Amino acid sequence: MKTYIGVDLGGTNVRVAKVDEEGNVLQIVKDSTEIGKGTEHVIAKIISLIESIDGYDDCVGIGMGVPGPVDTVNGKMVLATNLPGFEGYPIAKRIEDHFHKPTFVDNDVNVAGMGEAVLGAGKGKGIVYYVTISTGIGGALVVDQHVVAGKNGHAGEIANIIIDRNREKVNYLNVGAVENEASGTAMTRKGKAVFGIDAIAHAGDVFDLARKGNAEALKLCDDMAYDLAIMFSVIAHVVDPEVFVVGGGVMKGKDVFFEKMENYFRNMIHKGMQTVEFKEAELEEPGIIGAAMLPKAYVKD
Amino acid sequence: MKTYIGVDLGGTNVRVAKVDEEGNVLQIVKDSTEIGKGTEHVIAKIISLIESIDGYDDCVGIGMGVPGPVDTVNGKMVLATNLPGFEGYPIAKRIEDHFHKPTFVDNDVNVAGMGEAVLGAGKGKGIVYYVTISTGIGGALVVDQHVVAGKNGHAGEIANIIIDRNREKVNYLNVGAVENEASGTAMTRKGKAVFGIDAIAHAGDVFDLARKGNAEALKLCDDMAYDLAIMFSVIAHVVDPEVFVVGGGVMKGKDVFFEKMENYFRNMIHKGMQTVEFKEAELEEPGIIGAAMLPKAYVKD
Fold it and tell me: From which residue to which does any coiled coil extend (chains A, B) (predicted)?
């Protein structure tokens, strides 16, 4: 069976795995990124991690997931907030020149969406829109098992979608951007405002209060459900996906908001679009498996 | 040079053209649809129009544009409000069985988007989002010269995108749906409300008042510009297109709203997305040329 190398390069850790074509992780190694020591140090570390994998030289190709928007054609990061020095750095070419194997790089959310589309909850579906709701909100469009990354690698930057123009300005994102209204961070902020700074450490505390029937917490969850429904309806009207695959830590609270969200959503889309499904993300390691699926998708047999 | 047959089947007229691979319309014929006489009558008419084209039998394939969402895989209309009887009718197969040539059908807006992406203002671009602002608002996503029609043919049903949840309910579309707030029909409705029923016959009358410096008309145009900017920003965050190609009759008033719209829009998207361009639609016959481009895109040489 063919195998692929997946690399998950984050600001803190870099992880490398050998993955087979069915998405099984055969071996996985990791190390700290040590970005402070510079790009060449990080590249040398990635190379050494790959070479520590049994039979790495038999792999078809290498795929990398990185945080931030990517110029996938040239294999470079467009923005590298968490990996200073890598903005515009020819990361794919450096790895490809060393191993002489086709190497691809894409944004970590796109890569996770790819993993879910090819092998996870979106397996067998034509148009998959992957959404992760965590501290932030991100998305990825996967059409026929290929990521549509966008002209500037910004496809799926759904955090900035305006779901209500009448909100407070929170940060650099748009007024009423969905990430500032319905992410884990937003729920924490809103929970602190209602229940006090000490009562709420994270969104899960708001969800717990909602589970106990607290009316104010239920209201926060209902608002969140409505805000997310607008976001999902907007995406649906733009690309009409077959399935939304939804992941991220906030889904731990799905029992208090997801059914409400879906009901609102279905009232916001046309009758002919109702076959769209919602599925929860399935892969334990979507980032690294998805990265390994990049060469699977792009290397012609 | 290869040639293709394009069919533009509307509720009132059906037009058929022979188009070469550069998009030149070599011959065009038309007739009234007479949908009241039934589907078989319409099919016989389409066949007869195609057979009236010189050298129709040398064409590579046939493409058809129809009003409403289409199941492109099975070549059937999902909804056929303007073509009663054609919902679920195997229109592509009927034409293909007669001519023994590959036949494709898609929504008329998708087909126009295809025409603009392949041969018009989006020529040579990777990800094109076509938007038509007319009596209604429609869109089409074209990736690498292939239309992404969506699971139910509803990709590009951007009319229903919510740009402000705090508006009046107008019709079956969502409260605050962009088509009810910023289309030609919406501008006519709003103009009548401000200036009186007799003062405004169509959106162009509002634009004329704005050109004369009328403050209320300028306010309506400014609101329209902001509403459209939210719609474009949402689409940009979902798919990050290389270019928006914008067509439709309302663009006749572009001098009073488009620059404002683009300024608002650029303040709603990330710095890294600013390379996105706006171009006005170029083709005189995007519907029929785009229809002819369906076999060009989907028939492998």
Answer: none
Per CATH, the number for B124-280 is 3.30.420.40
Is the Cβ pair A139, B233 closer than 8 Å? no
Residue range A61-90, pLDDT digits in tens: 999 999 988 998 899 998 888 899 999 999
Please tell me which residue of chain B has the smallest CA distance to A150: B240
**Looking at chain B, which residues constitute the CATH 3.30.420.40 domain(s)?**
3-114+285-298, 124-280
pLDDT of residue A180: 97
What does the pLDDT look like over A259-281, one tens digit per residue? 999 999 999 999 889 999 999 99
Q: Which residues of chain B make contact with A153, given a CB cutoff of 8 A?
A: 240, 272
Find the mean pLDDT for residues B116-141: 94
- Residue from A81, A109, A137, A151 whose CB has the most chain B CBs within 10 Å, to mutate: A151
Chain B residues closer than 8 Å to A151 by CB: 126-127, 240-242, 273, 275-276
> pLDDT (tens digit, 9 = 90+) per residue, B210-236?
999 999 999 999 999 999 999 999 999
- pLDDT of B100: 97
Angle between helices A254-266 and A203-211 (to 10 degrees): 90
Per-residue model confidence as pLDDT tens digits over B182-207: 999 999 999 999 999 999 999 999 99
Best residue in A154, A164, A228 to probe B by mutation, most B CBs within 10 Å? A154
Could you tell me if B295 and B62 are in contact, meaning their C-beta atoms sit under 8 angstroms apart? yes
The C-alpha of B54 sits at a distance from chain A's nearest C-alpha, in angstroms, of 38
Q: What is the ipTM of this complex?
A: 0.88
